[in-house]
From TrEMBL:
GO terms for molecular function: monoatomic cation transmembrane transporter activity. Residues 134-215 form the RCK C-terminal domain. It comes from the Bacteria. This is Potassium uptake system protein. Residues 1-117 form the RCK N-terminal domain. One of its GO terms (biological process) is potassium ion transport. Gene3D superfamilies: NAD(P)-binding Rossmann-like Domain (3.40.50.720), Regulator of K+ conductance, C-terminal domain (3.30.70.1450). InterPro entries: NAD(P)-bd_dom_sf, RCK_C, RCK_C_sf, RCK_N, Trk_Ktr_HKT_K-transport. It comes from Orenia metallireducens. Pfam families: TrkA_C (PF02080), TrkA_N (PF02254).
Length: 215
């Protein structure tokens, strides 16, 4: 089982730590604010009041034994960058950091962050994509211009199979999975028939996915 550190227990960090703990992962939660530490102490394996920009404090906590650290210090960019640098230097394999904007993200990648996330930008994009097309249930960006979307099957798909629909040749997209009342089919075959209430999980470039949505 991988072991996680979560640094900064604001709304984002708290939610990351709680979700991991609920899935029975070992989580060390760190914050300078005693109240935040108290609040999460019954939920995670260890909750410690410490300053993540203090290298000796992190060393004492044995952070180098952890596989993944999530840095979610928000307001204080200086502390966010310094904590990232120290965690990398102490040998944490993977450091995931919440960034404010692209420039901040650039600095984080220079100091060794393995993954940079922009929660507000990403959530905004997902919500906007949900709003503009009522049949899009979920939207995940894979890379700039490539996404995975969940699309509710509509009546011009019912009782047709994937071969009939020809989504790959017509739109250049791939159906990765189909969710139906019976569960999820993660490797649908050409003869898999689409039924009312099904959801298609489709991967492709954004323009092609837009075309498919308008179908
Ligand atoms: P969010 O937008 O996710 O709520 P915040 O910026 O409000 O994020 O919260 C960041 C958290 O990080 C706060 O709880 C704050 O006490 C904590 N924090 C700030 N600086 C440090 C630091 N040097 N070490 C550890 N935790 C810190």
């Amino acid at each position: 089982m991988r072991q996680f550190i979560v640094v900064g227990l604001g709304r984002f960090g708290y939610s990351v730590a709680k979700t991991l703990a609920n899935k029975h992962y070992d989580v060390l939660a760190i914050d300078t604010d005693e109240e935040k530490v108290q609040e999460i102490s019954n939920i995670v394996t260890h909750a410690v009041q410490a300053d993540a920009t203090d290298e000796d404090a992190l060393k004492t906590l044995g952070v180098s034994n952890f596989d993944v650290a999530v840095v979610s210090i928000g307001e204080n960019i200086h502390a966010n960058i310094l904590a990232t640098l120290i965690l990398k230097e102490l040998g944490v394999k993977s450091v995931v950091v919440k960034a404010k904007d692209q420039l901040h993200g650039k600095v984080l990648s220079k100091v060794g962050a393995d993954r940079i996330v922009y929660p507000e930008r990403d959530m905004g994009m997902r919500i906007a994509n949900n709003l503009i097309s009522s049949n899009v249930l979920e939207y995940i960006e894979l890379a700039p211009n490539y996404s995975v979307v969940e699309i509710a099957a509509d009546d011009n798909m019912y009782n047709k199979n994937l071969l009939d629909l020809q989504l790959r040749s017509r739109f250049g997209v791939n159906v990765m999975a189909i969710r139906s009342r019976d569960g999820i089919n993660i490797s649908p075959r050409a003869e898999t028939e689409i039924k009312a209430g099904d959801t298609l999980i489709v991967m492709g470039d954004n323009d092609s996915l837009d075309e498919l949505r308008k179908m």
